[in-house]
């Protein structure tokens, strides 16, 4: 399918798959020696400051000002994505293997579709509800709640909560008074999230306990430069150059890349439990992403009392 849109789109997709899939490996290496919240605060403070500086230098400040409302919204958005999302993930990856963490994080589209249905009344085709069932069965199988299991259940549960918060934050951003420019919005949210992370790191006593080994520093630099800068800019470009349905394939390719890299680079075991659960989660995400593009008349939700008639403008373009 990518060939239809040219070699640059294909190259961008492959870059996104590898970059965002490999960040789980870099994070596992970083938290071996660096405290999780402190390492994430450095990542997001640096990335946020650079992205925001670029956005302010290139954009029209008067047409897209950053005031109290934008900063407040950025703290909410950045808190949900980068504190309860990335911060929780970093904490959990101290005990949860990178491949397993990636499979759980891969459930974010499932939570987004579910929350969008419950809160905003976005109806989905029946195939999406089958996807919900398959995805949740996959997560349950990965947790193995009735057996001994090989996964740290507390750490895995923290990642699930983080994935739910990431999904909620993504939905919140649709109507939040964030800056209109993507770089400004991402930079401000990352900076605000980094500030929250450094405060939490100080309150938890992490500062002063970091061991700045070469591997940890290189992993952190990889997360900042490759994960944040290369990954994000590629993602933004792809959203403009290719259909959203094609770009969204990263959601079910990244976990596969992370599992393979975890096995190849970190020596992580790939168990039958992971294969079955991963196939269920990845398959569920694929079903839901495909179903989300269908034009279905919206219904009622907790935050939308009256259904809105489906118009021609709401039909999918691809």
Question: What can you see in these coordinates?
Answer:
With 318 residues, this protein is an all-alpha fold. The protein has 12 helices and no strands. The protein has helices at 7-33, 36-58, 68-92, 98-105, 108-120, 126-143, 153-175, 182-203, 214-241, 244-247, 250-265, 272-292. Helix 3 (68-92) crosses helix 8. The protein starts with 6 loop residues before the first helix and ends in a 26-residue tail after the last helix. 46% of the residues are buried.
Summarize the entry for a quick read.
This protein has 318 residues and is mainly alpha-helical. The chain is 72% helix and 0% strand.
Which properties best describe this structure?
0% strand, 12 helices, 318 residues, globular, disordered C terminus, mainly alpha, single chain
Radius of gyration, CA atoms, in whole angstroms: 19 Å
* Element-by-element helix/strand order: HHHHHHHHHHHH
Mean pLDDT across every amino acid position: 84
Q: How would you classify the helix and strand content by structural class?
A: mainly alpha
N/C terminus separation: 12 Å
> Which percent range fits the helix content?
over 70%
Low-confidence parts: 307-318
- Give the overall silhouette: globular
Instruction: Give the DSSP E fraction (strand runs of 2 or more residues).
Output: under 5%
Number of helices: 12
The total beta strand count reads 0
What composes the largest sheet?
A: none
């Amino acid at each position: 399918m990518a060939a239809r849109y040219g070699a640059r789109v294909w190259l961008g997709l492959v870059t996104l798959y590898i970059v965002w899939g490999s960040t789980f490996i870099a994070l596992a290496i970083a938290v071996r020696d660096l405290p999780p919240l402190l390492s994430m605060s450095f990542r997001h403070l640096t990335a946020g400051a650079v992205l925001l500086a670029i956005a302010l230098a290139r954009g029209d400040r008067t047409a897209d000002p950053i005031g109290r409302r934008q900063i407040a919204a950025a703290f909410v958005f950045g808190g949900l994505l980068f504190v309860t999302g990335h911060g929780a993930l970093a904490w959990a990856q101290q005990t949860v293997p990178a491949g397993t963490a990636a499979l759980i994080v891969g459930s974010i589209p499932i939570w987004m579709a579910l929350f969008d249905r419950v809160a905003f009344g976005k109806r989905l085709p029946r195939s999406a509800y089958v996807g919900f069932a398959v995805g949740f069965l996959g997560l349950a199988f990965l947790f193995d709640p009735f057996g001994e299991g090989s996964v740290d259940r507390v750490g895995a549960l923290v990642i699930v909560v983080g994935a739910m918060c990431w999904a909620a934050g993504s939905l919140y951003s649709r109507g939040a008074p964030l800056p209109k420019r993507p770089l400004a919005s991402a930079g401000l949210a990352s900076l605000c999230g980094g500030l929250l992370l450094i405060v939490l790191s100080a309150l938890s006593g992490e500062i002063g306990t970091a061991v700045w080994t070469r591997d940890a520093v290189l992993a952190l630099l990889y997360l900042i430069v490759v994960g944040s800068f290369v990954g994000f800019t590629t993602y933004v470009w792809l959203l403009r150059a290719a259909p959203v349905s094609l770009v969204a394939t990263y959601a079910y390719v990244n976990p596969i890349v992370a599992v393979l890299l975890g096995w190849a680079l970190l020596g992580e075991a790939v168990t039958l439990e992971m294969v079955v659960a991963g196939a269920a989660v990845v398959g569920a995400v694929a079903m839901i992403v495909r179903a989300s593009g269908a034009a279905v008349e919206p219904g009622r939700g907790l935050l939308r009392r009256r259904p809105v008639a489906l118009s021609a403008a709401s039909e999918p373009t691809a």
